[in-house]
Amino acid sequence: MRLALGIRYNGQAYDGWQSQPSGRTVQDKLQAALSQFADQPISTLCAGRTDAGVHALMQVVHFDTTAVRAPVSWVRGTNSFLPDDIAVQWAQPVPDQFHCRASALTRRYVYVLSQSPVRPSLEAGRVGWSMRVLDGDAMRAAAAMLLGRHDFSSFRASACQALSPVKEMRRIAISRHGDTERCRWHVEFEADAFLHHMIRNIMGCLVRIGQGREQPEWMREVLEARSRLAAAPTFSPNGLYFLGPLYAAAWGLPPEATIEGGGAAYDGPP
């Protein structure tokens, strides 16, 4: 039987998603918990790998097993073996043809940025930070230049394993929450797929533009350069959240994971 799970986690304590010899990754913790609950080795695949310090509101994984349990039991039983900062949200049997990565129609992230004269304290590790006031209109003008299908090599990490740097950016929405110099910015991204560090590298450029250190037109120059050397330094992982992939409703997943259902919404740091 093939099962899909929706997972939420705070990535502060982990070396990213993908399993590593240290064992300090989200995948390592999830597979250990699943294996204990199922009483057999469980190996998972995920919809989108996240870096160290990056969070997820709706990571989707799938795995094959001969263990027979009710969906609610997979949720509660697995959670009983997981650390407090990782939790299964739902479990759903799926056809053998379902693949959490290949079946995804789109993927979404949000970057949460605190604009404040002083660094975050209570939200440390869960939001990015700009000490300077940001110009939202300038950032939106720059972001518009990234929409559509482009070669995103300028925003690609050297360790990226993607076969092609060409991706389709479908949406970037920038919103400000609060009217004083102390406020929060949400930058939402949607694309068919993302390159390694792509969003953090774009954020580095957007913040530089928002702070007035570059003009919005600079973003087009960076994009067309197709060189990582042209872009700003990689921005902090702290405020990055994987909102999750979206699938066709025909797979029978919960509404928060489907195109028709609108997907999981971001409602503030967990």
Radius of gyration: 19 Å
Could you tell me the mean pLDDT?
95
- How many individual β-strands? 10
CATH uppermost class of the largest domain: Alpha Beta
Please state the second-level CATH architecture of the largest domain. 2-Layer Sandwich
The 3D shape can be described as globular
Using the coordinates shown, work out and report the CATH topology of the largest domain: Alpha-Beta Plaits
Low-confidence stretches: none
Biggest sheet overview: 10 strands, mixed
| Element pattern in H and E | EHEEHEEEHEEEHHE
Structural class: alpha+beta
Counting DSSP H or I runs of 4 or more residues, the number of helices is: 5
Strand content: 25-35%
Q: Give the domain tally.
A: 2
- Measured as a percent range, the helix fraction is 10-25%
Secondary structure topology:
Elements: E1 2-9, H1 26-38, E2 45-46, E3 55-64, H2 71-79, E4 86-94, E5 106-115, E6 128-130, H3 136-144, E7 148-151, E8 166-177, E9 183-191, H4 198-210, H5 218-225, E10 240-246
Highlighted features:
270 residues; single chain; Alpha-Beta Plaits; 27% strand; alpha+beta; 2 domains; ten-stranded mixed sheet
